[in-house]
Amino acid sequence: MYVAVKGGEAAIDNAHAWLADRRRGDRAVAEIAPDQIREQLTLAVDRVMNEGSLYDRDLAALAIKQSRGDLIEAAFLVRAYRTTLPRFGATEPLDTGAMAVARRISATYKDLPGGQILGPTFDYTHRLIDFALAADGEPPRAPTAPADAAAMPRVTDLLAGEGLLEADSPYDPEAPVGDLTREPVTYPAARDLRLQQLARGDEGFLLALAYSSQRGFGSTHPFAGEIRMGEVELEFDCADLGFAVPLGSITVTECQMVNQFAGSADAAPAFTRGYGLAFGHAERKVMAMALVDRALRTQELGGEVVAPVQDQEFVLSHADNIQATGFVEHLKLPHYVDFQAELGLVRKLRAEWTARREARDAAADTLADREAAE
Amino acid sequence: MTASTATAAGGYAFAYLDDQTKRMIRRAILKAIAIPGHQVPFAARDMPMPYGWGTGGIQVTAAILGPADVLKVIDQGADDTTNAVSIRKFFKTTANVAVTTRTTEATVIQTRHRIPETPLGPGQILVYQVPIPEPLRFLEPRETETRVMHALADYGLMHVKLYEDIATHGRIAKTYAYPVKVEGRYVMDPSPTPKFDNPKMHLSPALQLFGAGREKRIYALPPFTHVVSLDFEDHPFEPTRFDAPCALCGATGVYLDEVVTDDAGGRMFVCSDTDHCETRRAEGHHGTEWAGEATEATA
Amino acid sequence: MPAPLAATLRPGFADPVFDAQAAFRAAMSALAEPGTIRSLAGLDHAPAPLGSIAAALILALADYETPLWRDALLATPEIDAWLRFHTGAPFSDAPDAAAFALVSGAEALGDLDRFSHGSDLAPEASTTVILTVAGFGADTGGVAFRLAGPGIDGTRDVTIAGAPVDLAERRAADLALYPRGLDLLLAGPNAVLGLPRTTRIERI
After folding, report:
1. Position A1 confidence tier, pLDDT thresholds 50, 70, 90
2. Which end of chain A has fewer CB atoms surrounding its CB within 10 Å, N or C?
3. What ipTM, to 2 d.p.?
4. Catalytic site residues of B?
């Protein structure tokens, strides 16, 4: 005999209470504060702002705390919050050439106007666990120097001056600003929408795609023309006032890949571009983004789409980790109704298969008996 | 226009979505109704629950819901599955809407994977949560291609697939998400409902709305729309049938879940539609395994 | 928004959330069950000659994403200012570029071909025409039609006053284009009636 189980609200409430308790961890250890996350786990905050598609360090830090450090979950929290925000319009394009640079490197020139600035990078650290960090103690302050007033033109501007690099697409201030959170993407998608999707896209996915192109699955022959990171001014053109109003500054990382291009029937040989831009310090993200951006331009540059990284529909529809994690994880939800339907079918097909097999064996036996008898 | 006068808990808008988002979804719903079975693209928003967990259905429900509605939410036919409980709570919190588990009392029923056993009536709205709205997706993954097939009403690929099934298995080996043709024009995915439920869609007096959030599509069946499961003359559509009645309420002709009762092959079959089963039990119908009513589990 | 205009502007919905929801539900039921008469609260103080039901429908459905076409009678500065303020919708002079068309009456409807019927790829990208009519029901002395199609159990008879007399013929031509097509919302004095592109219309 059987009593039907009723799940329900109490079970969910208890699960949430348990989750909150686990989040807090050992109560003998001081609780982490969002400002500590904001100041000390800055790269995690940057990633959450990028994939959450919202520049708000405090909110991202709080989301990281709430999500127990699960950065996709944190980005998801930020996204859902973002949905509810009113929208006032689009800012003026960022002038990254006027960036207050904290880091700037070019792999294509030994030296260049404005110089190479390593900045706060892991690049040349030896990846040895620093046990000193486990002990208390402040690190010494980094040495400082007066800012260099020299201009730091973008490498791509230098190259373009020589005519060796394809021109940037001209900026049309009247053109509508595409936004795939406001209109569903249709394929083929314009480059602005592609870049938006890549900027919101999962760093790991972009990294793997970029890597696949380097290994020959859709090679783009890239050079890291320039990577720069620092603060840029944001301006909002207020229609009622008739002029642009400064909103403050944000930190961004920009990567311009310069890619070899042998030319086509319509275009002379020149270098082409792949572009990456992300909130905060997100070098791996923007480099991968720039490689993927260039790969997605294969068709427009007269190439043939042969590899996943070049395939718009494949890349764009699978780049969003909030969508991906939701759909992968939805397999946790009950599917027993469909499973029941499949169970019935498989049982039936197996029974038929067995019956056919037995009939065949029986026929073979009869034949063998007859042959033996003859 | 000023901010909404109707805000719910936490300062969020009524039913969570802002006015502009609701208008955008509403426009998509109207066009979906006007073109039965056609997938209308819409700018699905990031919702506060995961993609794949009903965000499309939730956005449709949020866009249509008003203060006079009575909402029922089911998953696998059951009101008490965790995600159904969670979605019902979401609307209770954000829209302060009346909720029910009774199919007959509901004006809006959001569902995942089932159509209630109790026939729906005029004025009722059934909102389906849809994971993959494109019936041709697993035959042709590219949307650029499948859109053209729908535009041309070119469903040869689907017929070939179904015919191959018959050649290999002697039958169409599809037990859920079984494709239907709407008003002789569009091939449509009924969402992963078992094919047992397909006949209920045909000429239903209720309005049926389908929301796919991750895939950003809405489609619809107005009441009294012709919905025919794809088949062949010599291999007509066969809905699933069960050999035994529900072990709890004794109902026949309903969809049953298999419940494993021990590790020695013991199993029994009970109604997937919990409201239907409970109503029957309350009316005094009992199956062979019924042993009284349960209290709510807490873990 | 210039202040003097806003100050004299007639109001929109008293409750933007629930009034819009109610108007939408009326339109949805009207299109889901063509020929049924769905009453809704109109906006009585909408600037004339914009009808109160048409006004409620357009406020519920239009915004900055939906280009709006209106016939010459409805293109008054006062109506334009009111629509712009309450919907934010851009005006379109080309009817085939409009998501919504506001039509003051049968004589202003013109050739249906001038509105967008969408494409086979995107049949939803078609104009929704909000046509003001004199009323519904046998007591209006209007023209009787028999309707059939999705949303209708068999057939449904309806009498419409102020609809084009050749409505059946004009819609029959449209029906051949399906899934391309026009969707009509007929706005009566206090109700809406839907005629989506799927509805077959016969004059009786």
Report:
1. low
2. C
3. 0.96
4. 37, 246, 249, 271, 277
